[in-house]
Amino acid sequence: MAKLTVRDLSVSGQRVLVRVDYNVPMEEKDGRMVINDSTRIRETLPTLKLLQEKGARIILAAHLGRPDGKREPSLSLRPVSEKLAELIGKPVQFVDECVGEKAEAAAKALKNGEILLLENVRFHAEEEENDPVFAARLSVLADAYVNDAFGAAHRAHASTCGVARIISAWGGRCAAGLLMERELKFLGDELEAPARPFVVILGGAKVSDKIKVIDRLLEKADTILIGGAMAYTFKLAHGHKTGKSLVEPEHINTALDAESKAKELKVQFELPSDNVIAELKDTGKLNKKGKPVFEPVNPRVNTETDIPADCEGFDIGPATSARFSQIIQSARTILWNGPMGMFEDPRFGEGTLAVAKAVAAATANGAKSIIGGGDSVKAINKAKLGDKVTFMSTGGGASLEFLEGTPLPGVTCLDEN
Ligand code: AMP
Fold first, then answer.
1. Phi-psi region of 239 (alpha: psi -120 to 50; beta: other; left: phi over 0)
2. Who is most buried in 26, 273, 309, 412, counting CB within 10 A?
């Protein structure tokens, strides 16, 4: 059943606690914390503007970084209140607490349409513990609750779900924000009965991280394309040599089971036929954990089934890129999660770039393309194709858990419509 959304709320004159994702990258410049990328703040504007139009008194709760339950000045949300004021074109109040007398007085003093940002909820250890007393102290600030922080919805914390349970219990409405609504629509509803062919592209580091997603999507997809380091565990499972590639030998059976299930369900399951490999040169340096740092050198395409003992696989090869691109171009629905290689290094970014281009081209031909968060979003943005796909998720871990079919605490706590 669909969740209640902020559109459905009548909140004129009411105090609405809105959980947002303002976990923005910051750095210190001339003794001040400066926001490097305000995308996450910008993304909340539609919800905040709608609430302003509805005459709500808006109280924003968010976390920033990992202060581990202590007040950490460099992780204060004050600079975010200044940035939000600039972006929304209206004053934004800030209170250097998120619960207690000061926060309550500031919330009470709000007039219709005004915005108050509370201090970092993670300055209190009780936030991540989902402590009921702390959640109750948050709940007294508001009459209704809106969750627009999809990226934090997989966490059962006080501000992401505990507070909603309390507000609900005494009859207050709890709704999804517009950003959250879009995530639920594209990662959820749109994939329930996708237009076919439905092509799923999965990459990234580990099979173990993605196996639940593979398992669930095998029930729905027509084709699954596997790239990234996780393809090497499949290679190993087939008895081939993987050299120094990232593999999970303990997950060989997981990989084989996924392939058998694909066969049973008549899902086309495609693995790379060639790779970009490189030798590893010892730099003589040690990383933070005291382990030697190796530099990939002499990158080249490997068309053999085995990877030489002194090499690591870092990307899908050109033949695989071409085959995957062709399959993607014929899709009517595409879901992509995880890069095809170690794309952060341009020598190993060609496969991911080819896939990004194919997804953009398919979208231009009418396919619906959904980018399931994390590094695939970074890759699409790196290729400057962000506006050429249908939807990019704002979640990392949350997107993955949602795609696995795991109920997200920050979503289940919201009222049904
Ligand atoms: P994930 O978070 O599981 O989607 O993994 C993303 C990370 O996997 C990125 O940082 C990539 O650099 C890395 N990655 C993908 N393919 C490879 C590969 N073949 N070798 C090493 N790292 C890879």
1. left
2. 26
Please give the pLDDT value at position 1: 58
Ligand 1 atom having least distance to the Cα of 342: 12
Cα 7 vs. chain centroid, distance in angstroms? 24
In this structure, what is the dihedral angle of CA atoms 33, 39, 41, 45, given to the nearest 10 degrees?
150
Q: Is the CB of 336 under 6 A from ligand 1?
A: no
Ligand 1 proximity of 229 Cβ (cutoff 6 Å): yes
- Mark which of 182, 204, 238 sits at the end of a domain: 182
Residue 234 CB–ligand 1 contact under 6 Å: no
Is the pLDDT confidence value at 213 over 80? yes
Domain count for the chain, please give it.
2
- Give yes or no for a contact between 35 and 23, defined as CB atoms under 8 angstroms apart: no
Q: Is 318:307 a contact under the CB 8 Å cutoff? A: no
Mutational test site, ligand 1, from 210, 232, 375, max ligand atoms within 8 Å of CB? 375
**Does this model's pTM top 0.85?**
yes
Query: Could you tell me where the DSSP H helices lie in 188-347?
Result: 190-192, 207-217, 230-237, 252-264, 318-329
pLDDT of residue 373: 75
Supply the residues annotated as catalytic. 40, 206, 374, 397
Ligand 1 atom nearest to 231, measured from its CA: 19
pLDDT (tens digit per residue) in 111-157: 999 999 999 999 999 999 999 999 999 999 999 999 999 999 999 99
Domain that holds residue 68: 6-182
Q: Distance, CA 212 to ligand 1 centroid (Å)?
A: 18
Residue with tokens 């990019």: 392
- Given 128, 151, 182, the domain boundary residue is 182
Q: Closest Cα to atom 14, ligand 1: which residue?
A: 342
Best residue among 244, 245, 246, 353 to mutate for probing ligand 1's pocket (most ligand atoms within 8 Å of CB) is: 246
> In this structure, what CATH number is given to the domain that contains residue 272?
3.40.50.1260
Residue nearest to atom 11 of ligand 1 (CA): 342
For the residues 197-226, what does the mean pLDDT come to?
Answer: 95
- Give yes or no: residues 163 and 204 share one domain: no
pLDDT in tens, 66-106: 999 999 999 999 999 999 999 999 999 999 999 999 999 99
Backbone angles phi, psi at 269, to 5 degrees: -120, 110
